[in-house]
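Before the break, one more example. Copy the sequence into your notebook; we will annotate it together after we see the structure.
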Amino acid sequence: VQLIESGGGSAQVGGSLKLSCAVSGYTVSRDCMGWFRQTPGKARERIARITSLGSLSYADSVKGRFIISKDNAKNTLYLQMNSQNTEDTAMYYCAADRGPCDGNWRWGQGTQVTVSS
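Here is what the structure looks like once it is written out:
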């Protein structure tokens, strides 16, 4: 099982980044997929989730700015991050939950995103 994130890096306030997650051992068309983020000293926070049927949910902190999507043919998960602000600086993790979304998440190694003014 592997969840390999890419696309992190530095961005300016108001800018955009797109994260990708190459998935193996799970199937994005059948499993629950999500993105989490964490900053030092804080709990890991789920920011976006997409079910096997494509139902979306977002944390209030990113709603209207971030978009989660998936490519079933490539078995890849994405997170488009727009209108970024300094509070988006965090380690971002791709996550998978076998079958329905019931909280049994497995995470990747993470990719760092730093937003500066």
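The mean pLDDT is 97. DSSP finds no helices and eleven strands in the chain. Try to locate both features in your own notes.
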